[in-house]
Amino acid sequence: MSALYRQVCKKILDQIASGQRKVGDRLPPEEEFASELGISRSTLRLAFAELEASGVVRRRKRAGTQIIAMKPQPKFSMATSGIQDLLSLGRNTEFRINHVSTVHSDDIDFPGEHYSETAHWLKVCGARTMNDDPRPFSTNRVYVPARFAGIEPVLKTADTSVFQTIEATFGVSVNRVTQSTRAIACPRKDADLLGLEPGSPVLQIDAALYVQKGELMELSVAIFDPSRFQLYSDVSIE
Amino acid sequence: MSALYRQVCKKILDQIASGQRKVGDRLPPEEEFASELGISRSTLRLAFAELEASGVVRRRKRAGTQIIAMKPQPKFSMATSGIQDLLSLGRNTEFRINHVSTVHSDDIDFPGEHYSETAHWLKVCGARTMNDDPRPFSTNRVYVPARFAGIEPVLKTADTSVFQTIEATFGVSVNRVTQSTRAIACPRKDADLLGLEPGSPVLQIDAALYVQKGELMELSVAIFDPSRFQLYSDVSIE
DNA sequence: AAGTGGTCTAGACCACTAC
DNA sequence: TAGTGGTCTAGACCACTTA
User: What GO molecular function terms would the record report (chains A, B) (predicted)?
Assistant: First the structure.
């Protein structure tokens, strides 16, 4: 026989599955529910902790315990040693800035939504090299919203990445990263920098970095030489 | 003042940071530690639960509570509605099998390690179509180890994916997915199937699916038409 | 304002597993 | 096999949030 609090979990999940309780319903207050189930409040709380961790209920003071899902939500956790890895910046890489300018939101060349939240953006163009190899393995174009444009003077000394410069300067940290990856024929400009034939297949990764509450930190477009770079991901479930 | 058990967390983390306790050390047994800290065992357990959840300690019966990291490990959780999304199989897609054969492990064309765990593998070649568009948007080559080769007769009726067929047939579920993505020049064979010019840039995704304890479920090589497919990822930290 | 979850205590017995 | 974490109880007070 499994632990009592696990039985309680199962019981609640069964009640949800059978339609006896529905998503959106509120469960009784702890004290009441505990005596109703004939168990102590502590035990019930163990069960609730499990249901909360698995995304089945949400608990808020005064608002009670609310059912928000029918089944435990599988969690996809990414094996990553840091955002560096997530953003495909190797350990021994260096970022060299070629050009910095201020642009209008209309001039932003980034797929998807129109990022018109601020009129002016800082545009940073550069390239990334690895292990003292003078030939870069990626070219980068980064757009920084006006809010963080204050990094401009600091950028001169930055050799890691724009996002790390912003983190250090403003005391914020990246909270969320969305990426879109595709294969394209390499444009001439990037091909020249990467030492490739124009039109050869390259990987383009468009990334949006956010700090908190969906606040945008930067948009980034990177083009990678496929012979020296692959995108890895390692995801475990639950 | 924050909760007592949080203060205990912080205290332990501080002791680790100051070198007073080191990674690999064992913390005292709960009862002893609790009285040493002048708190109840329940409160200490709340602190331990937090430290365990954040990856700082590992707890095992009889072996005690061991420090395994100096700081709370940030968690990278991937926003995904399911493995389907993770593996870039759209909702309205269909998998059509072209060819099934048995091959030697030597004949496996998959980058990385030599997968010699089993001598014989089932090789499934197919393509994936979307929304009744007869022209596939991806070609697929899947290798299934001998252990799951029993799906062969069932494959005839499978139109979703090899991994789902294995899951349904053997009652297992995918536990971990590693992927490697790169841009390549499209081989002639795949170009014919996808309706592309040979040599045009395409996305190749090599994936390894595991069930549990690192047991391999399948190796998969997929080539995507970049005009109709992009790889998305959405990762939140902590 | 009060109902709710959050925190905390002091005990007890149990079950497993690593020594 | 015994030391350890796991489970469970019955109580108490508190702080917050939202109805």
Answer: DNA binding; DNA-binding transcription factor activity
Kindly state whether A212 is in contact with chain B, defined as any CB-CB distance less than 8 angstroms: no
CB contact under 8 A, B183 and A202: yes
Q: What is the pLDDT of residue B214?
A: 80
Contact B197, B188 (CB under 8 A): no
Partners of residue A182 in chain B, C-beta under 8 Å? 203, 226, 229-231
Residue with tokens 């980064």: A142
Helix ranges (DSSP H) in B63-215: 83-86, 152-155, 162-170, 188-194
Alpha helix ranges (H) inside chain B: 4-17, 30-37, 41-53, 83-86, 152-155, 162-170, 188-194
Taking residue A141's Cβ as centre, other Cβ atoms within 10 Å add up to 20
C-alpha span between A11 and B96 (Å, rounded): 41
Residue A100 belongs to what H/E stretch?
strand A93-104
Q: Which helix (H) or strand (E) holds A57?
A: strand A57-60
Domains, chain A, ordered by start: 4-67 (1.10.10.10), 83-237 (3.40.1410.10)
pLDDT in tens, B161-218: 999 999 999 999 998 999 999 999 999 999 999 999 999 999 999 999 999 878 899 9
B17 interfaces chain A, CB cutoff of 8 Å: no
Q: Round the CA-based radius of gyration of chain A to a whole number and report it.
A: 25
DSSP for B191-202 reads HHHHT--TT-EE
